[in-house]
């Protein structure tokens, strides 16, 4: 810690983000106040949570509040709270130097979309710019903060948003944070953020339901009592009212989840969502229910319209805030919804919970387990009941996460299976449900066929599907890595088994036994040439036009799974695959003729390798020795031409 004033550079990503905010949100200025009030409210939430186990921490400052002071002459606006505050180190960590994890990736995505000219405030909103939004309205921001606790010292942070900030120790009488904005000059037709009615309006619109009073000193006309009135020469009062300064509460503080559904407007639902989620986009939909009976609770849950940028990051927060009789207990309540529903935001108010509940106790709590079970049920029902178009939008954003549930939530596996959608060989790029797939199955088709891989067009053209296409059987095209786990977990749907198009025996057309026998010695020979690379060479029942493909046994790992494990740096067990050859292809009968003429021909060895390479390429795999492959093709072409 240090007493002197230090100047630091903003982390590059933070400065980039700041410039982006200032440049793209100038027409959306009001939201800076919402963000700062949300931060103040979060800081009080945190303190309140801490005070449940450490009541001393509040001292005699027990009335939580947020205060706004506007000075129209100096053109400054102050937002103060008596929340948890920050230590010097926390200010260093939270503001300016360390960018949130994922910022760089997010900025890269933004830059990409900027190129496509689709940069919108909504896109930035997804990231949640929080504190930095102050610079939309201010050309200098000063933050003075003191952490809760008797020993704490105060810290002052200041910046003009131009690449650097100063930080120093200071003094502050009480705990909490004050943010002082030196407002930018406004044009005559622009809003002045020191104007009482401008502030009132913004707070009413965005922060009405904040649980703590947002207070401001306002000037009011008060009637002058008769005996205090000054009279003029005609005995008439000079004035009947006088200006007084009184403290006014600008928000209603009504917990909207506790209200009757009919009393809440659509806009109120939306604004509350934005307050708790820090997302600027409207939610896709919400569910507001009061459950009575043995497990009593109220829930107001929202489904975002866009996936958050950090959906797949380890340190992302969950979206549920837990309350007990409208008193905030905790945010980021992971215990109430499983991981695969981590994108759901909202509030759960459980009146029977113990207010002093800790996270550790929550995990064991029977009531919490019951609530969780109910929430999952309601949320899955909400998904299932969505209109087709809304559901497709939802699935495009969150389908990948929902799939995680197929192998983690055994209890709801069937319901999750109902929610899955896939493109297929027949769907023309549209998503199809498993139910639709089954309805459209051919009369003689017994199983649900699928193939996994990372590239849709490689999959759709895969040689593994030739016979299936010939039979006019539909095949699910699974291109998410998580689909590998889905297929492991879901072995069947509505009594129809899942069957990989690249594994096991497809049991379509049996290869003629005589023909099989004709090829046995040649196949043994090819196998001996490729001994260390494959486990078997066999006639294929999958292929129609292609010469070769690779397959696995029913319980072998798929090629895609092996690729995923390798890409994530994990040790994939070495699984040799089966080289399947099309005995009806003219190339094979020619190789066979050559083999019967001269078993020692060097070219037969080359052809064995070539057949394997062709099989690898056709499924989008990587050759071990691509230059040898192209040399062999070159030789073949020069002979053929
Ligand atoms: N009034 C405050 N009191 C205490 N800590 C604060 C306050 N304002 C900001 N902070 C701290 O600074 C951090 C960064 O704030 P910022 O508003 O940039 O992001 P955030 O609130 O974490 O998330 P979001 O970007 O979604 O708003 C907060 O997480 C909090 O720890």
The ligands bound in this entry are: adenosine-5'-triphosphate
Spatial separation of the terminal alpha carbons:
80 Å
Number of strands: 23
Name the poorly predicted regions. none
Q: What strand line-up does the widest sheet have?
A: 1-6-5-4-7-3-2-8-9
Quote the average pLDDT. Answer: 88
How would you explain this protein's 3D organization?
With 641 residues, the protein is α+β, with helices and mostly antiparallel strands. It has 21 helices and 23 strands. The model has no long low-confidence stretch (mean pLDDT 88). Bound molecules: adenosine-5'-triphosphate. It is found in: Cytoplasm.
What keywords describe this structure?
alpha+beta; 23 strands; six-stranded mixed β-sheet; 641 residues; 21 helices; nine-stranded mixed β-sheet
Summary of the model, kept short:
The protein has 641 residues and is of the alpha+beta class. It contains 21 helices and 23 strands. The strands form four sheets. A nine-stranded mixed β-sheet has the order 1-6-5-4-7-3-2-8-9. Strands 16-15-18-17-20-19 form a six-stranded mixed β-sheet.
